Amino acid sequence: MTSTRWKPARVRLLAALIAVCAPLAMTTPAAAAPGTPPSDPAVAEPGASGSTPPDARELGVEEQRLAKATPQEILRRSGFDAAVGEFTRALNGVREYGDAARLGERSGERLWRRAVDRAQGRGPAGGDLSRDDDRPLYWARLAMTKSLRAWAPSFDLPESRRSALIARLERSSRGQTSIGLPAGRHVRRIVVTGFDPFRLDADIRRSNPSGAAALALDGTTILTASGPARIETSVFPVRWADFAQGTVERTLLPHFRSGPRQVDLFTTVSQGRIGRFDVERFNGAWRGGSADNANLSRTESVPIPAGVPTVHPQPQWTLTGLPYGKIVAAGTGPFPVYDNTSVTEIPAGATEPVDRADGPTPGSAARAGGGGDYLSNEIAYRATLLRDALRLRVPGGHLHTPVLEFGPGNTDPATGVITDPDFVRNRLGITEQVREVLRVAAGTLG
């Protein structure tokens, strides 16, 4: 039997947990509900390829960017720097690995909830940065993983276990472990995913409207022609390795399986082209090689992780199940919405890629889906392939948002400021149009 007496280590852990949880609880009402990343693939900047991933004690490329002035300003002007400090102090009071694992997961969940609450107007803003901003969550998460890498606990901590702690915090702070779809026939169930900011070496000020939309929509209910619909969201990293390891399938699988809480509609969302939304008709089984947020490149067929349901042989193409015709015709907001059918393929019997405006031809090999050959296309391919493997008969696919742009006079990353009224207005407008697209799509459910 386990002793019920409090040991000194447990007392220290309790004090540390109170220190990290109390400020966050003040911003989270008890009644609170439980990202291509941007750019046309043709615009995506190439980066270093063939780099060696850092081990757990070295700072990753993303964490190294924290030293720059912009991330620190974003953390300070949102109040998320305090959350990072609280987590670090709590971590330094931990004396057992199991307690560290629990602290990491709970702190990640609270960070996600704090970002969602802030985006949805609950609790203090924590600073003068616009509430709809997705960047505080991104940079705070990296500051926390940086603390985990630097942590020197009083007990032995193999690097494999340190990596597991980082992975646990990553998943929980992205909303991947807290998707809570309701049961019953009275409400429709929608899952939406977004992405982190990316292409930060070109402009470290960047935000990702798909991530901002995920924060604004998580746990909300919309009224549709088919009745009320509950939306649950998560965000994903812009890293090839995480996708190869199954982060998409691991997150979506519980909600795609048959049962009383099975999803009724899903859409992956990312930033795409300037001035337009696109419903991507075709998704391709190909990685095109552009550098990710870790400055790593991959050019290969999309790898499917072991142990997840899939289709054999692996198909070169998957199809959207979203009602693109109705979405395009609905007039969901100020930006036009297109049914994008373009792809790049190597036709059967050929060796060179060609562009097709009207989708792939029989027997062709994928080189780019409608969403390109970056992680936007890949998340759409993985989600719809999992749908097909499970024979899930619900609408689902990928939505590209317009590129989020700064206002005139604030386009130079070397001299510009981190936010401006046009930037905020554009992000809010994109989020509202994503909501309206979901309303139209869910309204077609029988």
From TrEMBL:
<keyword id="KW-0732">Signal</keyword>
<protein>
    <submittedName>
        <fullName>Pyroglutamyl peptidase</fullName>
    </submittedName>
</protein>
<dbReference type="InterPro" id="IPR036440">
    <property type="entry name" value="Peptidase_C15-like_sf"/>
</dbReference>
<feature type="region of interest" description="Disordered">
    <location>
        <begin position="30"/>
        <end position="58"/>
    </location>
</feature>
<feature type="signal peptide">
    <location>
        <begin position="1"/>
        <end position="32"/>
    </location>
</feature>
<feature type="region of interest" description="Disordered">
    <location>
        <begin position="350"/>
        <end position="370"/>
    </location>
</feature>
